[in-house]
């Protein structure tokens, strides 16, 4: 009986997550930032900043005076958001740059352009992600969730790490999810070719965010801080 129930639960997981999403969002939206710190002269990159958490984060940082880069796959949508933030905050230093985390060529092009354009990078916020996608692969052949949510940000962080070190004190913020508790790293099935479930693929990628953050912090000999009920792991360099 138990053996029959487990596959059924896996099939129902995406539906259950979808149905519970409004209640989960309501529960997690109660956190309020009470800091009044201003950020003039600081340079920030926010991935996936044209919608959701990324957009609100970029708006708040612009309100505090930072120079904010919206790193987005959809540049047209990003430009509309940038104008909205500029109008709302009065900060004209809100810039849009193309970044497709499902393509390592795009990631490398973004990093190359940014490093040529800016002398400093004080905050990197790895926020962008995909959730419960039908099975597909990135331009480089990785399963979409692990490719975008983890490997894309892994490469981006690696390419910008020296600039972050040079700009210290600086921060790396990796946005994960409570779903990481359901994740497992199956090295024999990393690309989901033997077995695939969209909901679990998302959970696995969010666990990878946590493990990446902890290992990077260990190598850099810095502290990881957890913020809020939605795991946001912050490394201080």
Number of domains: 1
User: End-to-end distance, in Å?
Assistant: 51 Å
Per the principal axes of the C-alpha atoms, what is the gross shape? Answer: globular
Order of strands in the sheet with most strands: 3-2-1-4-5-7-6
CATH classification, class level: Alpha Beta
- How many helix segments? 6
Q: Could you give the order of the helices and strands? A: HEHEHEHEHEHEE
Low-confidence stretches: none
The level of helicity is 40-55%
Major sheet attributes: 7 strands, mixed
Q: Give the number of DSSP strands.
A: 7
What is the alpha-carbon Rg in Å?
18 Å
- Please name the CATH topology: Rossmann fold
Instruction: Give average pLDDT, whole number.
Output: 87
CATH structural architecture:
3-Layer(aba) Sandwich
Work out the strand percent.
5-15%
Helix-and-strand structural type: alpha/beta
CATH homolog superfamily: NAD(P)-binding Rossmann-like Domain
GO molecular function, one term: oxidoreductase activity
Family: Belongs to the short-chain dehydrogenases/reductases (SDR) family.
Signal peptide: 1-20
Protein name: Retinol dehydrogenase 11 isoform 2
């Amino acid at each position: 009986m138990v053996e029959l129930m487990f596959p059924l639960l896996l099939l129902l997981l995406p539906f259950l997550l979808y149905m519970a999403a409004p209640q989960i969002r309501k529960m997690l939206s109660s956190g309020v930032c009470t800091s009044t710190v201003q950020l003039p002269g600081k340079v920030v990159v926010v991935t996936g900043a044209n919608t959701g958490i990324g957009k609100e984060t970029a708006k708040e940082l612009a309100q505090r005076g930072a120079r904010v880069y919206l790193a987005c796959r959809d540049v047209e949508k990003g430009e509309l958001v940038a104008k909205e933030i500029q109008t709302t905050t009065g900060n004209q230093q809100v810039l849009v740059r193309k970044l497709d985390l499902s393509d390592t060529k795009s990631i490398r092009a973004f990093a190359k352009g940014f490093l040529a354009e800016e002398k400093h990078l004080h905050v990197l916020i790895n926020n962008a992600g995909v959730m419960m996608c039908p099975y597909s692969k990135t331009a480089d052949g990785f399963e979409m969730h692990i490719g975008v949510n983890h490997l894309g940000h892994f490469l981006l962080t690696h390419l910008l790490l020296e600039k972050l070190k040079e700009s210290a004190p600086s921060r790396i913020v990796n946005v994960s999810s409570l779903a990481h508790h359901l994740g497992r790293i199956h090295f024999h099935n990393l690309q989901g070719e033997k077995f695939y479930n969209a909901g679990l693929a998302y959970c696995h990628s969010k666990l990878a965010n946590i493990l990446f953050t902890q290992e990077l912090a260990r190598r850099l000999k810095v502290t990881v801080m957890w913020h809020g009920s939605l795991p946001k792991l912050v490394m201080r360099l």
